[in-house]
Amino acid sequence: MGRPAKKLYFIYNPHAGKENIRGKMYGILQTLADADYELTVYPTRGPRDAIEQIRDLPEGYDLVVCSGGDGTLDEVVTGMMQREQKLPIGYIPAGSCNDFARSLQLPNNMQQAAEIAVRGENFPVDVGAFNDRNFIYVAAFGIFTDVSYTTKQEMKNVLGHMAYILEGMKRLTSVKSYYMKVTSEEMSFEGDFLFGMVTNSRSVGGFKSIIGKNVVFDDGIYEVTFIQRPRNAMELQEILAALTISQIDTKYMYSFRSARVVVEAEEPVSWSLDGEFGGEYTRAEISNHPRAVEIRIASDMLESLKRDEIKTEEKTEERIEERAGRE
């Protein structure tokens, strides 16, 4: 009697990105099956469906592979965090932005990504906790952050990442800010902020260097950035110019690294978790679950993504001292 086949649960968002997974489905399934897996295939039917499907997945599976955008991956990871038995996750990016896939150096070619999903190496990554919810790579508020969930799916499909930029540009004339108190072990401050993000990614919304060049995915530490409200149009232009060239302008920005951040606001603030609407809160407690889930990555990428020996504490201290010298 032959060896029982390994079992793979393939869950995908049929509407993600430009819906091009429809034309690639045969090749993807063939790649998954060729790795000697017995397949179960499930298309998601609406928001939060993937959370429930992964959370309630019966025992006996060896691997979960998901395909969709960052929001689909977020739901799969959230469902996995609610399981006692956690399974490795393969990811076939199919969204408009695919920030986290880009950070993990996963290919845009779906068949190549499917090959990595079944034959790659397991790579442990941190998972964020936002009050009672989870996120995989970014929790953010303010300008541009609600673009993902206010942009129509049809516009995303036609324009891709440009849709986010166009939608954000329309908002520059009515920028809203929030008075907040931010507390962490490393530093505490308060002020009027138009944007903030807590990240574990080398790319957020297409910006790569804003969050720091030495991002490590399994160190239990976040990269944190808060941008103050400009007092006039010239300061706003300076901030936008800094973002455009991916440079942290410390005159208007706080940037540091921390495992836990508490953000308190005078009014409810809309937060985005992994590019999707995460709710409105006056208090957000953001903490880290180190190395909580495993994502499949290409074997030849493993070394470059492993924990780096970098002097991050010194860099954080330099930024704190630089700001203190100006205040």
Secondary structure elements and their pairing?
Layout: E1 6-12, H1 21-34, E2 37-43, H2 49-55, E3 63-68, H3 70-81, E4 89-93, H4 99-103, H5 110-119, E5 121-130, E6 133-135, E7 138-142, H6 147-150, H7 153-159, H8 161-169, E8 178-184, E9 188-199, E10 222-228, H9 233-244, E11 253-258, E12 261-273, E13 276-297, H10 302-305, H11 312-326
Parallel strand pairs: 1-2, 1-3, 3-4
Antiparallel strand pairs: 5-6, 5-13, 7-9, 7-12, 8-9, 8-12, 9-10, 10-11, 12-13
Helix pairs in contact: 1-5, 2-3, 7-8
Provide an overview of this structure.
It is built from 11 helices and 13 strands. With 327 residues, it is an alpha+beta fold. It has 2 domains: 6-119, Rossmann fold; 133-288 and 310-326, Tumour Suppressor Smad4 (Sandwich). Helix 1 (21-34) packs parallel to helix 5.
